[in-house]
């Protein structure tokens, strides 16, 4: 038994790697300028938790992350986790799209070792920055045996969230992350306390392995409103293989948008009704006859999470509509 666990901290940028001109710059600052080594060396407390090895994989704001970034991050973490000497991985990440990367990892990594994704809402240079405590908490979670086999976790503001559910729900407050059914637990002075388990399949019980993935199909999201120009649907559908329609309320579709979405589905684009509320379920064959139109529904997934899931589900052969719909009820 090792004296301390071995944890690899992989840096990708974000506010946690940011620097403001003054300590009162809590909201305007340079993003992605500190290396992961610099961040870690400013928090001496973390060395008591684990043997840490830092690695800089990317250095950019997470708003820039595309499918290639997701694959690159996933493949590197998978490689690191295969090392018997590694007990867990921390990924430092911008908070904007932390939920998408974390969910992608949750569905594609094949390991029970803890993987914790962490960012901060204020840069380390700001007054009352959450950067050091979030990172300390994330490492505390990664080293703890109770964190194994729970899929990818996101730690922020003293809470531990499952990657499946968490979304960034505020643009500047420290209390920015929300899971619709609540966090899995808290971190109190370096000790995780869990109160829930992720229910849906993840990591070792999914049908996707990151090592086998080479590219992801193009899936776009359209945000609905009453005056949406139907030509937007045609333009997106002419190029994408999947389309998440972030409808109003219960995935509702304005009258003039029905025909272009039906046409998209008939032309082989997978059309998924989601809700721009980002919360609650979209009822299949409820407000719209999804069976007749050849559409899918997200169950309860936020549109940005649904995009990740649809891209993966479409890789399974054959990407039949019924199999795609089943994926939304399984994951
Ligand atoms: N540029 C944003 C990002 O990397 C900053 C937001 C943050 O990290 O909190 O997601």
Question: What is this entry, summarized?
Answer:
With about 325 residues, this protein is α/β, with parallel strands linked by helices. Helix content is about 25%, strand content about 20%. The chain has nine helices and 14 strands.
Q: How would you describe the overall organization of this protein?
A:
This protein has helices spanning 36-41, 67-81, 98-108, 131-143, 230-237, 255-266, 290-293, 303-313, 321-330; strands at 6-11, 51-56, 88-92, 115-118, 152-156, 159-162, 167-168, 177-178, 185-188, 191-194, 219-223, 242-247, 270-275, 296-297. With 331 residues, it is of the alpha/beta class. The chain folds into two domains: 6-205, 3-Layer(aba) Sandwich (Rossmann fold); 218-330, Rossmann fold (3-Layer(aba) Sandwich). The radius of gyration is 20 Å and the shape is globular. Bound molecules: D-glutamic acid (DGL). D-glutamic acid (DGL) binds at residues 13-15, 31, 61-63, 94-96, 119, 121. D-glutamic acid is lined by residues 13-15, 31, 61-63, 94-96, 119, 121.
What would CATH call the class of the largest domain? Alpha Beta
Secondary-structure-based class equals alpha/beta
Main beta sheet: strand number and arrangement?
A: 8 strands, mixed
Q: In percent, how much strand structure appears in the residues?
A: 15-25%
Tell me the number of structural domains. 2
The ligands found in this model are: D-glutamic acid
CATH A-level architecture of the largest domain: 3-Layer(aba) Sandwich
The tally of beta strands, per DSSP, is 14
Q: Tell me the series of helices and strands, N- to C-terminal.
A: EHEHEHEHEEEEEEEHEHEHEHH
